[in-house]
Design brief:
mainly alpha
Length: 51
């Protein structure tokens, strides 16, 4: 219920789906960018410099 006793209408299924989808996308993008930063920081030992 709302503050003055009126019943707050529930969000439509589509809106809830959109919000949850966007939230999951943002979380997965943050997770992916953190992985990429870790990869960039670690030097690769398997690369050989050719002279």
């Amino acid at each position: 219920m709302g503050p003055s006793g009126w019943v707050k209408p529930k969000e439509t299924v589509n809106k809830r789906f959109l919000h949850s989808t966007l939230r999951n996308a943002v979380i997965s993008n943050k997770h992916r960018s953190l992985k990429q930063e870790k990869v960039k920081v670690q030097p690769r030992k398997d690369t050989v410099k050719k002279s």
